[in-house]
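In response to reviewer comment 3 from the previous cycle, which asked for concrete evidence that the modeling workflow produces usable outputs, we include below a single protein chain processed end to end. The sequence was submitted unchanged, and the resulting structure tokens are shown without manual editing.
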Amino acid sequence: MTMKTLARHFIMVVLTVILAGCANSGGGKLGPYNISVDHDDKNLMLNGYDPVAYQTVGKNLRGKPEIKTDFDGVTYRFENELNRAAFLNEPLRYVPQFGGFCANGIAYGIPWGGDGDTWKLIDGKLYIFGGQSSKNYFLMDEPANLKYANDYWVREIKNGNAIIRRYWRLVLRVPHYKTGAELEQLWQQKPKSANAQ
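The workflow returned the following structure tokens.
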């Protein structure tokens, strides 16, 4: 590495630490979390989607602002009281994995994005993605990506600052990192029947 590259990395890390103090990634013991703000809900999960509906009706349904609960420092909304009661009975069954961040990003150690309307249940657990392409790329090698994501979540992200970790991994990439263009090329090379997810 040249001195110029090292200086750039140092500046990026310093800026990340400064910006992290201004950023909100919510959460408690299980976080950090990918949260949004909606009216009085400052730490809203899943952009207000009902976490129980993914499993009970197989759809992403909007929760109602008046039917909600807090869990581990973040707020979940529910479509109805039955779903709220189910969540209160077994919250860990319904919370999204990786704090609701894009599972494909987490496979690269990057807690970023995550959209409540792009998702998949894998072994009864909810995984959120940053869009259809991210989901496609993750599912191209689901076992390996799950392993990477679980490892990076435990070793680097969980109980840490998502903003700092995000920018750290955008500068210092993981060994298996692939650009969006590289992933798209791999996706296009797959047989069309295998691409139907």
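The radius of gyration is 18 Å. We consider this sufficient to address the reviewer's concern, and the full set will be provided in the supplementary archive.
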